[in-house]
Structures are given as C-alpha cells and as structure tokens.
Inverse folding.
C-alpha cells in the first residue's frame, strides 16, 4: 500500500486520507485495510508495545476515497461516535457524474433498502418493510463534456447512498461498477471523494475543519479541483 497520508494528529485523534479501493477495516479479501494501516503507523511512530488502540468511528465504502478521522483512545472514540450519531459532524463529498443532471442544484429524497445477500442497495416504495429514507443536497460545480463535478452533502448516512441516489436520477457516478454504466471497468477509480470533514475536537471542543482534493488522476484530472478546496 502507498504511504499513509496524515493531515493532522494529536493524542486524541488522527485525520488521514483513505485511498480509493482499500477497505476501511479488515474484510474477507485479506487486503491491507485503513484501520490496520493507522494502527501500524501509531505503533511504529510511538514505539508502542502490543497493538495500538485506534477507534474506528465512521467508514467509507471500499471504492470511495477521502478524509477519515480515527480516535486515539476510548473516550475520544465515544465522543466522536456520539457526534456522528447526532449528525453533528459535517461530511462533504465530491462526485463525478456520467451525465449532467437537469437541475444544477437539488435535494434528492429516496427510500432505500439493502439486499444483504447481494450487497446492493435498491430504491424501493415507502411502504416496503425494512426500508429507510435517504436525503442529500447537491450542487453542480463544473461541467466537462457529458460529465459533471458535483458537491454533495448527505443529510442521512445510508450505505451506498450517494451512488444509489444519483443512479436513481439516471446520473450514475463515473467508475461505478455496481450501480452505474461502468460495470465492465472495475479498474476505473470511482468518482466519489470525501473531500471535507468538520467535527468538534473531543477534548478541546475546538471546531476542526479539514479539506483535501483527490489525487490529480482519472477521472478527476479533467476537472480543476483546487479552487473548491481553498475556501
């Protein structure tokens, strides 16, 4: 795996970049995962005996890259987990759509249900048992040919939500081999990046804001990204 990129660290939290296409935590694939990578980093840097404690307080889907925060101790893990549960943490994503949406900004609402057997999320009627409401706001930032770069603010935290909801308006994400047009292009990076994260530091109570663009490679390289991260 490529070298771990740390945006910030202290004795309570670590903020790092998860590359595309690696698991957040260990799974059946056996591939090196982000949680293990952060634990190894802390163990080596601080000469810790045994396994270092790192609290996993949120996740990104394997194909999604971007900013993640990890807790350095159980108290910080509990406080950050509570912020996520109470929707006090703001996550902003950037997505590349395979088609320009009709409305240049909008609010999407769908009812989603996960098919556990096939690990896929579907849009279903409101009446379907076990389904959950999903909402997000989006804004088109840039259009290049048939593709659109959009800023996305999820208002709920459903699995695969952004991918499913944009596929639901016939604008699937570029590189999406599960919900989109690129089902034969598994090597293409998914056009989804968790580019901005805001949370309250678990001990100092300071507002922490981190923003970082994805690496300038396909499919991101056709867009001028830096200006959206210099706010």
């Amino acid at each position: 795996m490529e070298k771990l990129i740390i945006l910030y660290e202290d004795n309570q939290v670590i903020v790092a970049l998860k590359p595309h296409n690696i698991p957040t935590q260990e799974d059946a694939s056996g591939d090196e995962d982000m949680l293990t990578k952060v634990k190894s980093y802390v163990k080596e840097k601080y000469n810790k005996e045994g396994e270092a404690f790192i609290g996993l307080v949120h996740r990104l889907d394997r194909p999604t890259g971007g900013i993640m925060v990890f807790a350095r101790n159980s108290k910080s893990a509990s406080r950050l987990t509570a912020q996520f549960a109470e929707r006090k943490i703001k996550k902003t994503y950037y997505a590349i759509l395979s088609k320009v949406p009709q409305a240049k900004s909008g609010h999407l609402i769908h009812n989603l249900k996960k098919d556990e057997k096939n690990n896929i999320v579907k849009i279903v009627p409101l009446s379907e048992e076990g389904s959950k409401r999903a909402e997000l706001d989006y804004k088109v930032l840039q259009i290049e040919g048939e593709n659109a770069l959009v800023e996305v603010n999820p208002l709920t935290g459903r699995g695969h939500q952004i991918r499913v909801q944009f596929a639901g308006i016939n604008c699937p994400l570029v590189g999406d081999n599960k919900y989109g047009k690129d089902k034969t292009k598994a090597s293409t990076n998914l056009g989804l990046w968790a580019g901005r994260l805001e949370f309250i530091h678990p001990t100092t109570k300071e507002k922490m804001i981190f923003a970082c663009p994805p690496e300038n490679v396909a499919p991101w390289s056709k867009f001028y990204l830096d200006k959206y991260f210099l706010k």
User: Anything to note?
Assistant: Helices lie at 34-45, 74-85, 161-168. The longest strand covers residues 132-144.
